[in-house]
Amino acid sequence: MGKKSFFDNLGSIFVKPDEAEAEVIHQQEAEGVVPNVEPDNSNDSDLMFSPAIVKQATEGNIVGVFDKAIYSQLQAAIIEKDLPGDDYLEFKSSLKKLAVYIPDEAKLYKATFDSLNLNVESLLKSLTHYIDVVSGEKEKFKVGLQGAVEQQVGKKEVELQEIVDKRVALKTQIEEIEAEITGLNEYENTVSIDLQQAKTKLMVTDANFNITVEKLTTQLTGDSAKIEKHLVVSEEVTK
For position 7, what pLDDT does the model report? Predict the structure, then answer.
């Protein structure tokens, strides 16, 4: 059985914020900007591509940050689609190991390339393959996100509307059921908060996913440019 894709693990990401996080989100809503309050606990040594300090980016009014869990899922998807033989993944792994001994980037790329059984064309072709893998995971994520929106947000919206309708009906009997209406008002407030928290959490997850995809794609395309810079020219000179 293959490894689970990021889409298969959506359930572990679309979770309700805890009370402390919910309080921060609630306070920030009035200001029009809701930051991602989850800390970035990424450890570069655990990541295949060892990103440098990650910049924040904005999706609407949600600030997205690099998410290690999302990155790890994308990394796993790439590894699962590893092409047979030496290719970009083996090149990247060797590059990381040799970097300890060869500080010069140009020499490092050439030495790594010479140590593997591949050519520049196949190397770049395999890199394109992995970029496509990441793009495919993004499409799966979007489908899963839409399903989560319908399940979590849609249900709360229906519940909220039912409460409002019931309250209107009960007002015609205000003298007999005043106590019940008071209780419904309190419950409505709770549901409204839950609804906003659900929407915010989904938007934060979406923003985190997009910035992480952007970071990984930038790294992959950056490596492609370096390969062309350091290896294509070298190969042409050798010919």
Answer: 43
